[in-house]
Amino acid sequence: MINLQKLKNQDKNNFFLMAGPCAIESEEMAFKIAEKIITITDKLGIPFIFKGSYRKANRSKGGSFTGIGDEKALKILEKIGNTFNVPTVTDIHESLEAEMAATYVDVLQIPAFLCRQTDLLIAAAKTNKVVNVKKGQFLSAASMKFAVEKIQEAGNLNVLLTDRGNTFGYQDLIVDYRGIPEMKSFGVPVIMDCTHSLQQPNQSSGVTGGKPELIETIAKAAIAVGADGLFIETHPDPANAKSDGANMLHLDNLEHLLTKLIRIRAAIV
């Protein structure tokens, strides 16, 4: 089990990192990304949780990539966790997926659009895994206390909250950094999703856009206001990633970014 108290009380120079590809594309690609991130986070002393979606259920177009097969992708996540001795996280979309996914990963993630789905939250809670709930783009930070309460009242105190911006017009998002300290007041670790908060959804092309050049800005501000962790989707070739490439951080840029963020953390604590 991940020690949430440890995640909330890192050494002053550290935050924790939840990172990886948007989706599990192949074992080779997943291991390439995991190994590179682990090399960086071990060097910098940053606790790391490997992220990869075993299936992408929320797609703009019916023909968009959704996955390589549920069991195949989940087994890759399990293998990464066992090989590198790191915790892993993946999304679930329906209540019946919770028990299945919990067999393979350490953290179950509730997508932002589903953060109010009571049955889904309770099903995730009952696995006794850590549950990371992404704040809905349509919700205030204050409203997320009810998601926390649903999970805790189901008997699971292992909750994370992740901000990923708020809907701004039809095709953009904006981050309200007041939400980070507000959600921290619920007594749970709070993460900033530095990549999905830069999405440009609902494009007429049916392919979500993004502004990856602002990932550093989002991350710096999140650390400055006290985020416990960061969520970053990263890939060695974002332009050819099978999901959400438009807002991913290039893997080659990760170490430089994290090094800057450690200095910011040290300066404010």
Helix and strand topology:
Elements (H helix, E strand, L loop, with lengths): L3 H5 L7 E5 L6 H18 L3 E4 L18 H15 L3 E4 L3 H8 L4 E4 L7 H8 L4 E5 L10 H9 L5 E5 L2 E2 L5 E2 L4 H6 L5 E4 L5 E2 L8 E2 L4 H10 L4 E7 L13 E2 L3 H15 L1
**CATH topology name:** TIM Barrel
The total of helices stands at 9
What structural category do the secondary elements indicate? alpha/beta
C-alpha Rg, in Å? Answer: 17 Å
Note the main sheet. Answer: 8 strands, parallel, barrel
Order of helices and strands: HEHEHEHEHEHEEEHEEEHEEH
How many strands in all? 13
User: Can you identify the CATH superfamily?
Assistant: Aldolase class I
The N- to C-terminal Cα distance equals 27 Å
Portion in strands? 15-25%
Estimate the helix proportion, in percent. Answer: 25-40%
Biggest sheet: strand arrangement = 1-2-3-4-5-6-9-12
Q: What top-tier CATH class fits best?
A: Alpha Beta
Shape: globular
Mean pLDDT: 91
Low-confidence stretches: none
CATH architecture assignment name: Alpha-Beta Barrel
Number of domains: 1
Please characterize this protein's 3D structure.
The chain is an alpha/beta fold. It has a single domain (4-268), classed as TIM Barrel (Alpha-Beta Barrel). It has 9 helices and 13 strands. It has helices at 4-8, 27-44, 70-84, 95-102, 118-125, 145-153, 179-184, 215-224, 254-268, and strands at residues 16-20, 48-51, 88-91, 107-110, 130-134, 159-163, 166-167, 173-174, 190-193, 199-200, 209-210, 229-235, 249-250. The strands form 3 sheets. It has an 8-stranded parallel barrel with strand order 1-2-3-4-5-6-9-12, surrounded by 6 helices. Strand 7 (166-167) and strand 8 (173-174) form a beta hairpin. Helix 2 (27-44) runs parallel beside helix 9 and helix 5 (118-125) crosses helix 6 (145-153).
